[in-house]
UniProtKB/TrEMBL annotation:
Name the UniProt record assigns to this protein: histidine kinase
Compartments where located: Cell membrane
Record organism: Nocardioides aquaticus
The keyword Transferase is annotated on this UniProt entry: yes
Sequence ranges assigned to domain Histidine kinase in this UniProt record: 166-385
Amino acid sequence: MLSEFARTLVTDFPIEGILDHLVRRIVDIMPIDAAGVSLISPTTYPHLVAGSDESAVRYENLQTELGEGPCVLAYASNEAVSVPDLTSDDRFPGFAERAHVEGLVAVFTFPLRSDDRCLGALDLYRTKPGELDEQDMATAQTLADVATAYLLNAEARRTKSEFVATVSHELRTPMTCIAGFIELLQDGQGGALTPRQEMFVEAIVRNSARLTALADNLLLVTGLASNAARRGHSDVDLAAVVLAAGRDLDRVVVARGLELFLDVGGDPVVVHGDTAHLEAVVTNLLTNAIKFTEDGGWVRCTLRAVSGTARLSVSDNGLGIPEAEQGDLFTRFFRSSTAREHAIQGTGLGLTIVDSIVRSHGGDIAVTSKHLGGSTFSVCLPLAT
Ligand code: ADP
């Protein structure tokens, strides 16, 4: 069981789900009837409760409501608390009385210890009196330590996401200001520009657009990971999304001498989802196809509704992706050796974002590609019903 949990320790799974799973598995392997975890902090008291069943959640809440019980004592003392028979233990009269009514007889509690602080406690509940033997007590403390490791890991991930979200957000404000002043310069409001000055301003425009895109992508990635952005869904016509994305890319397509074919059929292709997220899918795939195709090449985007599914495919005759690297395509910050060799700029976040969005809409994405032989990204999304 420990190795099973060790494997999931580094995943992005929400902590609530992990703790629920942990307490249920503890009930499977220990001689107890229920188990619960309360996360306690001096300011928010408690801030999270998990239980193997409803009774465990009730016992956890009861102790924190009363401010009394083995869980509260283990938290305050940072020591394990053993109560083999609540009826003959006078330390928790209020809790014992209420627990007795529900048929709870024995409680064994283990602190969630971390260096200098205690995060809460793991409670094991039993409906029959009697001690837990030494080995079970030691096992339970180890499991409490595993829960602590999860919590610390989740806390570190949350801090990191919040940090990235704050930095990206703070980046956006000066970027908007820079864009505003560039526009004034281009409009000639600071005096006429010489051709050389225009060239410099163009370089500033390009690079500030890159920075803005990076900040947007970072925000999207942290928002998706933390599930913070659970926004409203609506019916979205993907055909309109594709056509609008194509229009936005018109300038670069012409400048690079590329051919862009958009074939969306004649009818709307409607899926139910988050408009901004679905736009990010189409834009990221089209931008990549353009970016990784040499001047004079072609990019083709087709969209069709086929038996309940929206099928979007974006193909190009560009650089392709070496086969050995294709398994890492949807990993955060992945960039192919070809992209690096050709010094094509990017962050390696776009496809991670695309993949998360497609999956969160109940769809999937596949890629076929050949080194220096072009790529096709195919996305399937369920049509709105
Ligand atoms: P970025 O484009 O910012 O590098 P992405 O996550 O969008 O990040 O893409 C990750 C990597 O996948 C790219 O760096 C590139 O190596 C490869 N890739 C994505 N799309 C294509 C494409 N259409 N053709 C060739 N390589 C691609």
